[in-house]
Amino acid sequence: MSLIKSRKRVADHGEVFTPAWMVEAMLDLVKDETERIDSRFLEPACGSGNFLVRVLQRKLAAVELKYGKSDFERRHYALLALMCIYGIELLADNIAECRANVQEILADYLNIEGADDLYRAASCVLSRNLVHGDALTMRSSDGQPITFSEWGYLGKGKFQRRDFRFDVLTGSSAFSAEGSLFAHLGKHEIFMPTKTYPPMTVSELAALKGD
Quick one: 27 exposed, middle or buried, by C-beta within 10 A (0-12, 13-18, 19+)? Predict the structure, then answer.
């Protein structure tokens, strides 16, 4: 695979893709986290998904090891693994490729196609977790503050969604610094979700069209 798409893109955006061997070496530095199903990863310049694809593959290997004997749990924890990866990408074609590449990994693992509720639920999740925007300005391509959904699996086929603004989440160190105006506050007081949703099943997730 070429590490660049065009010289112009390199000049305009500094776009150079990370080679596979380097992706593996970097992920091995946090190997235990890459193999934990519910650990969260954010790639602020995700390109077409070189890192996120490999993170998901490692997580799905952990799903298979732990839940491979139960199709119900295997499917739901595989979706949770996908729910825990996030990305931001400046270029529209890259973010579209990234979503497609990540979804293909999940679909191949679970042997599902577009008509399956879990496939459509994954599409819904990826539309929120993989954002077309600018990580430096923390705004999406339409100029709005980037908002990420935090997903959790409650068990028995139910998922919880809470939305948080990216700029607030990244303020953690500043808020907790000694002498800060907010140093006396607990994290639960600073990091309030912008919205909390009722628990949802895969079918209900699949049916979502917008926020």
Answer: middle
